[in-house]
């Protein structure tokens, strides 16, 4: 099984990505990181512990292809500012739904839950 967390480096700046679907081995890349990949001219590399290629630098061709298919305009609804008409309870239900569908990681769920409750 792949690691639950991989690291992506964009020009030396490192970000941790969590696996959000353990059955399909899917990692979620937040919008800010996708935008950084799209806008940067720097090297992009993945660090995947326990793999045959623990440090994998994306080739120019792979990076160009990634930039053409990567969504850089939308984030998960829960990451956007709250809608004016949504109560805390409604936002917590929406957050739990995203978590149960494995669209956000455990850490993202807990962080956002704390943020909503603190408002």
Detailed description of the structure:
The protein is an alpha+beta fold and 119 residues long. It is 38% helix and 20% strand. It is built from four helices and five strands. Strands 3-2-1-4-5 form a five-stranded antiparallel β-sheet. Helix 3 (88-100) runs antiparallel to helix 4. The radius of gyration is 16 Å and the shape is globular. The termini are far apart.
Radius of gyration, whole Å: 16 Å
Largest sheet: 5 strands, antiparallel
Poorly predicted regions are: none
Distance between the termini: 38 Å
Instruction: Provide the β-strand percentage band.
Output: 15-25%
Average of per-residue pLDDT values: 84
Total of helices: 4
Bin the helical content: 25-40%
């Amino acid at each position: 099984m792949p690691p639950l967390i991989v690291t992506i480096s964009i020009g030396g700046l490192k970000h941790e990505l969590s696996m959000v679907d353990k059955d399909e081995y899917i990692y979620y890349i937040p919008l800010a990181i996708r935008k950084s990949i799209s806008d940067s001219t720097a090297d992009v590399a993945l660090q995947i512990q326990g793999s045959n290629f623990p440090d994998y630098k994306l080739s120019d061709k792979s990076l160009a292809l990634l930039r053409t298919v990567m969504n850089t305009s939308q984030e998960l609804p829960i990451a956007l500012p709250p809608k004016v008409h949504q109560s805390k309870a409604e936002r917590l239900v929406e957050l739990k739904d995203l978590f149960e569908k494995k669209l956000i990681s455990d850490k993202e769920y807990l962080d956002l839950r704390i943020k909503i409750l603190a408002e």
